[in-house]
Amino acid sequence: MAKSQTSSKKELKSVILTAYMDAVLEHEVHPKSVYKFCKSAKIDEAAFYEHFNSMYAVAAAVWSTFHENTLTTLEKSKEFAGFSNREKVLTYLFTFFENLTLNRSYVAFVLSEVHSNWKELKMLKALRTDYKGFIEGLIADENELNSSGIFKYNKQFFAEAAWAQFLVLLKFYLNDDSKGFEKTDVFIEKSVNTVFDVFDNTPLESALDLGKFLFKESFSL
């Protein structure tokens, strides 16, 4: 019975997210009223509040779900656990952007509203926490392997730099008009390899300069 209830809750959450994305695309506006949204989607309002406390929370959950789906895909791969951190980040990003492409119409619409003011994109806050947690986990594993070494990577710094890079990639993807978004794939590979090369082979000052550059670029493209 417990498993059935858990499954039903997951299914309802999925129904809410799908209905929300459909409503955004159909009406080209974000639903603001929980009551109207639930009535239109034929969802019990009380059940809605078991998962979300507002429509904003649903918008944020869409992006967190892209992250969760990406991790689920990666966890199914027997080879992933044996990858280097560089390979794990590349695989994550390739998979994440494949998920975005499956929902390209929604992604393009909600991001096109932002224009240059990405600092105000509150719906990405949950994803930011999720992605930084993923990166910090990789760095923690790396530090544990190098426990006898003098130098250890700063998890918070690397996570912030990775998030800044992620925003640059997201903006590039939004404007990518190449077939199959091939340019985005190339940009992901080149940017991730460049970042890892810099972090692996340059002093901390240079890494900090790169982090500042990525942060600046993420809000200026």
Tell me about this structure.
With 221 residues, the protein is mainly alpha-helical. It has 2 domains: 1-53, Arc Repressor Mutant, subunit A; 56-218. It is 74% helix and 0% strand. It contains 10 helices and no strands. It has helices spanning 2-27, 34-41, 45-48, 55-75, 85-102, 104-112, 125-145, 155-175, 182-201, 204-218. Helix 4 packs across helix 5, helix 5 packs antiparallel against helix 9 and helix 8 runs antiparallel to helix 9. The radius of gyration is 19 Å and the shape is globular. The model has no long low-confidence stretch (mean pLDDT 84).
What attributes characterize this protein structure?
globular; Arc Repressor Mutant, subunit A; 2 domains; 0% strand; mainly alpha; 221 residues; 10 helices; 74% helix
Short description:
The protein has 221 residues and is mainly α.
The beta-strand count equals 0
Largest sheet: none
Rg calculated over all Cα atoms: 19 Å
Poorly predicted regions are none
Number of helices: 10
Structural class: mainly alpha
- Beta-strand proportion: under 5%
Can you tell me the overall shape? Answer: globular
Supply the number of structural domains.
2
Write the layout of secondary structure elements.
Blueprint: H1 2-27, H2 34-41, H3 45-48, H4 55-75, H5 85-102, H6 104-112, H7 125-145, H8 155-175, H9 182-201, H10 204-218
